[in-house]
Amino acid sequence: MSEKTAYQAACQLFTRHYRYEHLSAIVSWDQATMMPPAGNDARAAAQAELEVLMHATLTDARLGDWLKSAEGEALDARERANLREMRRAWQTANLLPAELVEAKALAGARCEHAWRTQRPANDWQGFLANFREVVKLSREEARLLAEAQGLSRYDALMAQYEPGMKSADIDRLFADIKTWLPGLIQAVRDKQAGESLLRPQGEFPVESQRALGVEVMRKLRFDFDAGRLDVSAHPFCGGVPEDVRLTTRYRTDDFMQSLMGIIHETGHARYEQNLPRDWAHLPAGRARSMGIHESQSLSFEMQLGRHPGFLSLIAPLIREHLGDQPAFAADNLARLYTRVEPSFIRVDADELCYPAHVILRYEIERALIEGDIEPDDIPALWDEKMMNLLGVDTRGNYRNGCLQDIHWTDGSFGYFPSYTLGAMYAAQYFAAMRRAMPTLDADIAAGRLDPVFDWLKENVWTQASFLETAELVRQATGEALNPAHYRAHLQSRYLG
Amino acid sequence: MSEKTAYQAACQLFTRHYRYEHLSAIVSWDQATMMPPAGNDARAAAQAELEVLMHATLTDARLGDWLKSAEGEALDARERANLREMRRAWQTANLLPAELVEAKALAGARCEHAWRTQRPANDWQGFLANFREVVKLSREEARLLAEAQGLSRYDALMAQYEPGMKSADIDRLFADIKTWLPGLIQAVRDKQAGESLLRPQGEFPVESQRALGVEVMRKLRFDFDAGRLDVSAHPFCGGVPEDVRLTTRYRTDDFMQSLMGIIHETGHARYEQNLPRDWAHLPAGRARSMGIHESQSLSFEMQLGRHPGFLSLIAPLIREHLGDQPAFAADNLARLYTRVEPSFIRVDADELCYPAHVILRYEIERALIEGDIEPDDIPALWDEKMMNLLGVDTRGNYRNGCLQDIHWTDGSFGYFPSYTLGAMYAAQYFAAMRRAMPTLDADIAAGRLDPVFDWLKENVWTQASFLETAELVRQATGEALNPAHYRAHLQSRYLG
């Protein structure tokens, strides 16, 4: 037997880490979907112990030497990319002490568990009691990561989700959006004011909605042999590439949000299910970044899901599962799913209002992490920005205001920009697809979805993390991130 | 801050182990109830990695010294019991190399996963291909444990489930049973031949059966805030004391097996849910043994569940959920649930035939582990013993013969005797209860179940592992294990 190379030794350690991640993903999914309430304390302790273990794996004293020696070993391009990704994970882990990792896991679990009852109770003060600790620990994490990497504190957190992206970039992108978005929203609302629109009427039983969701997932080629659809308070796509767990939530008076939520999560799921399986156990084989992940969910939800051709495809399924009514005509469904109406909840927002929600959260969480504001300041800022951006009054309405999202409860600061980056990438992909495939829109309307899936599979899914984000986008679309495609897409769809 | 004692250091390490056990319990439950088929390979690898980690925790080089030093520290009786249990776990773990632990976990997972499709396909040859490896590794485990502890190989495996019990004891108990059981079965069948018996008719929808099961679980005081009921191919009670996961399986043409299965698993569950919560993280706070565990499930299933008074209590619930029919009269239900009819499946066996199934498995698995037979010899032996003990012909019928159980697939050799030990303990408990509470049977019929639960809680559940098994039974019932109570119970119920 030949001697193991340093590269192989490092890969072996990361394979162990990948198996621990598997355990973490499954028990986290269980916590959100299956766990009875009294199980929470023991679960939180077990999950925190696992966080500590995963951190200990990446801070193994031998790993630094292995990564260094591996630089001199003969590696092919993919192995070299994997070495780069292993180094990134190793660097980040080694900047954080185990005590902080454990404390943050426990504080996040406590805050999230309490949030589940505090949100319906509109209990901001109760939430604050746990949330202050989450912010304190996240700031400490940001400080340690920032100092060592020469980044601002917020940028250091954002780099965990979107490596290479800086808040200076985000500021530029968002400042541009703010110049045209309010005007566009107003123009679209004026235009839509004169449109006739039928609202779906009735009770939509959960079982019927679920059956509809499953059939739409099949149309989107979700592999049910390697995944599930369940229910959770906050929808997400979890699990592991080999077993993807996606969730939704149902309201019997409204099936539309849940259905589009399922389409969104199916985008995440297909990315995971189509990552290169023989690389799944190594960092280069995982999803590129959260912005790229959201580019898949938003390719499904926004580009495809709200496409009039796609809606004409699923209209018969909606009628089949929920009964026939005039509102289920394909053209009316297209009007419903492109109706622009500022409202409280980000995940239920329409395509045009969505970026406003993201900009609001970005501006608040960046100030919070940089120490410019304190947790107590959030509601007033939230109210002000929501009024300015969308004209929505959230005063005193914490449940539908700053308590609505799960991201801050467990300290996932720096994630929100990924949503709008994802929307921009998705618009850029579809522009590239249309250049390469001029019949794309007709294909979609005719039920030929494979050209879309094949393009995403070739250009994104199977690329995993072999390329850096900017290079992935450039190879896929022929240019760097270009927000003009996003604006053009919105103008074409909503005023075209 | 005062210096940590050696006892405390050991407890800290076992607390970590307990959190890993939590992860293991939840992902194992998920594997049996939720996981889609394509997830299996990654799951098996993750579970095996966790097994290795748990083994590494107990073989920590410092633990031996801590346990030794702790012997000289000031400990109260419960702490001393905990030290004894920590030592037991440490000794066993240190006799097994990590490679064997991992190989056994992987071989067991492979064999079990394939078994799920091989059983319905009646594919004994396919099963053998995986099973030979499981047997090989279990024999190696038995050899290592046996040599170091001066036990026979089978006894060394059985000690993992029932510490202190030897196959010489089991031989004596089972030899006695074999002298009277066949005659008793015959006498009861002769008596029952003249009885009128109405069989339930109809389709029993799964949702109705589930609602009935949940209501019966509530009557048995299962805490749904700290547990769940789901479906799996082979029913079990898993999870952790803080979050107990029990499962059943439904047939729409027969609700009786599933209902009694739920009652059985609820007995396991209430034991777990009532272990002393402040000791849950340490070995002394866990269930005493698998024989004692089965004594709880069989107290619920056999002593209580087939009690005519209890059946008169749940008869109205059965009618409420499954519709009224003459077969659901309380006295007919009592005749149905005490009907003696030799058949193929152990978990569906009646109370009298059950020990015959266990004796058969014990005799085969002991010979297999001691090396007296090979895996290929099992079907012929199975056929012969099934014919001798119960007059049932299993030739060629592997699916309902030697492929029916899950225990051997993952190498849980040595477990089967626990079932009959449990039945004997349960009969002995109820004899002790009746001595202390002469109105017990009337109480049960009147719906006053708390005297039973209070007795079990005081004498078994809250005792956890503070006492050795023999002492627990002696303190609870005033005498050592006495199989006369078991025989007396069966004679009284079936011929009385």
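qc> Chain B has a mean pLDDT of 96.
qc> done
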